[in-house]
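Two records follow; treat each independently.
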Amino acid sequence: MNQATLELDRPDADTIDRTGFDIGWDHAHHGLVPPAELMHAETPVCQGWMAGRAVFSRRAPGTTRDIRLWLQLRLLAWRRGIAFDVRQLTPSSLAQIHVGSCPVLRLPLGGLPGDASAAVVERLDPQLGYVAGQLAVMSQQAAQAADGVDVRAAVRRARLAESAGEPVSGFAAAAWWRLAALRSFATALPFHLAARLPLAVLPPPCVHLVNAVQRLQARVTLQFTAPGWSARAREIAGLLPEQALRHDFNLFVGALVPRLLEAGPGADDQRRALEDAWLHERVQRRWQHFVLSLGETGVETLLLRAGAPGTAAVQAMRPVPVRLPESRPPASGGPRSCAKMPRRLPPARPRPQPAAARPAR
């Protein structure tokens, strides 16, 4: 290992920005240079980069698109003073949330940074930082439209577009409903409000749904994306405690299935048909009648019963796995599957640093 004493013009060690220093260090670790405006000796990013260069020299492990995105997001969060969970958000975990089309506009993602179709990582709840379970990839155009728009504002725009019969702020009603659904996945809502939201977009990969009624809504809907849905629907109905509730659930299934049968054989066609089905008035009405009759406690009980060991309907209530793109594991190591995120944060990886550049703990 190369060691060197670095002469850095920097404030007292007690005031060094450790987050910025670590970002610069990881840039050097992967053979990348931070943005030019941060390459001044007094900035913690530059100090971390110089320290990393002294340690890693030219032995950088190489970079991938996911590593570049990881570093870009960390820089963005640092500049804006937003928390970023570096222990659970790794290049590997960011690769798992990648999608090929915008979930709001349904347009292919691509293009240069800043283009309307460029893929960006959006926080579904802007009040939270960059944490696992609440990040989704969408187009730059959708992210700009979502800026400052919460669940209720998106619902108002969707209803306005429906009543006017024309786009609102450039988006059709269906796009606003999809944005409302995405925002709601990470927003704690009263039960009666969450129960009335259509599932206009299926949950993106690795997004955690905070509202129990939406978890039930998504799990039930996903069963129709694979053969054997009829048997699985009967198993779910069998877990309900009352005949009246089973009847209401079967009426909901009867309203949803015809919309699915209209779709083509492709998986993408089926998923979009299910999303579009939720915008039909009859589907929404049947679902709301069923789930409001079931009640908040009943929803949570159903989810628990379906997940109990040895229950035959466990598979029926489990979301259909989403095929995720492969990516090279990062040097720091990360969770290989979004379904197996660690419950406890692992200890931080120790980093040898030159004494003159090591921030005080």
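The next record belongs to a different protein.
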Amino acid sequence: MAEHDAGRREFLVRAIVGTGALAGAELVPSAIAQNTAHEAAAPTTAHSSDHHGTFFNHDDAATVAAFTERLMPGAAGKPGAHDAGVLNYIDLALAGAYSDLQDFYRRGLTQLDAHCRKTYNEAFIRLDAARQDDVIRALEEGKAPEFTWPAPQEFFNTLRTHTMEGMFADPIYGGNKDYVGWKLVGFPGAQPIFTRTDMESKQAFTRVPITGV
């Protein structure tokens, strides 16, 4: 994994650990947490993280998948957004608790495509990793004039937040597949009991995490 990718991954992991908000649903809005278990859990197996499903069409799904993977890139032994099913998390959220952001995403993705085609004459998904990073950096710095609403920084910040949620929230919401995010930071989930050894250990928790729902 490139040094740039490793730095981005380290930043996001440190940001999550620093919040102290690794208690599953605490990373997702209360509107999602208030859904019933049936409403939240049933769709999570409806499609893989590679494909669109509930809200995104094929092209938008591919773009969001590529964008979030550049925000949280995977590598050998180190899960990224693709491995965690971040696309699935965002797709389900936009069809439910985040439905008020549907137009935000539609407009943002349209403007992202316009920026990429004007700058590189290609869609975001067809750019190599270095150019994708350049595009993301332009958004982060507010240097994408094709964006009006949402503003480029607002679009970037929202996708970064949703990527972190999809990586580290309780798997019942469609992301954090196979607890890869929790395992990455050593978060135990809702263990029914901790042994004396667990409590005294200074090492990361190693048993399989347990969902709190």
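Discussion point: The radius of gyration is 17 Å. How would you locate this feature using only the token line?
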